[in-house]
Design goal:
The complex is a heterodimer of chains A (288) and B (250). With 288 residues, chain A is α+β, with helices and mostly antiparallel strands. Chain A is built from 10 helices and 4 strands. In chain A, α1 crosses α9 and α9 (206-247) runs antiparallel to α10. The longest helix of chain A has 43 residues, at 149-191. In chain B, a hairpin with a 2-residue loop joins β9 and β10. Classes of the chains: A alpha+beta (288), B alpha/beta (250). Chains A and B meet through α8 of A and α2 and α3 of B.
Chain lengths: 288, 250
Amino acid sequence: MKTFRTSWNHIRRSPYQALAAITIMTLTFLAISIFSIMTIGSTKIIAYFESKPQVTAFFKNEANQEDIDTLSEQMEQSQEVANVRFVSKQEALKIYREQNKNDPLLLDLVTSDILPASLEVSANRIEDLSPIADALKKSPIVSEVIFQKDVVQTLTSWTSALRKIGIGVIVLLSVVSVFIMATIIGFKISQKREEIEIMKLLSATNWYIRWPFLLEGIFYGLVGAFFGWLIAAVGLVYATPYLQSFLGSIPLLPVPMFFLLGLLGAEFIVAIILGTFSSFLAVLRYLK
Amino acid sequence: MIRLENVTKTFGTGASALIDVTVAIEKGEFVFLVGPSGSGKTTFLRLLIRDMLPSKGTIIVGDWDLTKLPNSKIPHLRKRIGVVFQDLKLLTDRTILENIILPLEMTNIDSKTALKKVEDILSQAGILEHKDKFPVQLSGGELQRVAIARALVFSPEILLADEPTGNLDATTSWEIVKLLQDINALGTTVIMATHNTDIVNNLLKRVVTLSKGSLLKDEKPRPKADQPLAEKSHHEKKESSEKAEQKTEK
């Protein structure tokens, strides 16, 4: 308890140094939060597409039900196919109405006649999408085939780049914050050199002197982590409506609270490690 | 209790602060450590609290051989030896109470017991009414008492006082010495470094004299030497100095 009090006094008595330490930590954890959310989000989007390896074949208007059933049976017999689902013109309209229920103008213009019937063919693996798509394209009743392989490939390369940039920025900011914190704490140790010398002469153990400085580093880390996380979390909440319209049917938003709290918990652990490491550097350098 | 055997301390510059000093001090003794400035008195005391290591020789304090004492044991040693530093080493941004309670905060003692103990010591040192003041608000003699009080918080077996009367007037000096004598009377070994010949000559205690780092003399206390004599002598001196002052005024 006494150690906590001493540590708090160190912080309170030099507010500008504390502010500098907290600011750099906030910046570092803001970057960690943003890149973590982006990386985890894009990974989830990829996983969503990968979990639904699907080819959609739209039928020509003249296609009759018999031909469609034949094609459907052919697909079901294929080893690569997990599931086949026929979507009639009426069902397509229902889906369309559901997706655009807030826009009456779009609902008025569309009838089931102009929407094509389609066959949704799910594959077992994402690699199987190409042969299934090729097979469907060969059918004379199919007008157009779409599948997500390209989407997944593009997303994967973007995510990979994002991850690399994120790790780079986080490592750089972490190193900078460790050095800034070590300098600030080192400076405080130098300021208290006389007091430390007196305490040692009065029987203080090395750890009695070190603990308040270690706690100070941890405190800066935790406060910085909290503010960095808070800024990112509030930003995410505000951006959710825009992102939702962009992501469409992908069930990613709103981000569940337990995810954000989990991120905060993980950041607290990183903050404790960074804070302890920085103060330890200072303590080893200035308190021999 | 304390044994220095052929202790030599040479600094990096080549200057020797102590040369081949051998002294033994028994439990409960009151010893004056005298000698001119630079004779090695402070080095002698610093060696006893392992603030530095001797270049040669052995130093035994109680059961510990200080030359072989691991760093982790130094705090234990310093709890058994109270020190009144020449420059007092009080923290100027803390009150008297906070200064004195500081060593106790380094232990697991609960704050209520610690506070009680500090107040008892402050009463013993006669400065309880100053407990909430800061060092800058106190006189030299009061500050010495604060330093002595802080040195007593662990009820040490040994008390080292480095020039505790250095900058004090005669009356205050005698008050400080009286306080040290009282502490000694309770069984604490007291080693007082001083060059106040008035006190040394009147108190008739053991006197260890250092000169340029070497042990010049080790005079045992004279028989029948006791406190009343010293005090009487002090009062006589005080009276004569007052008379002298009156004459000067006339």
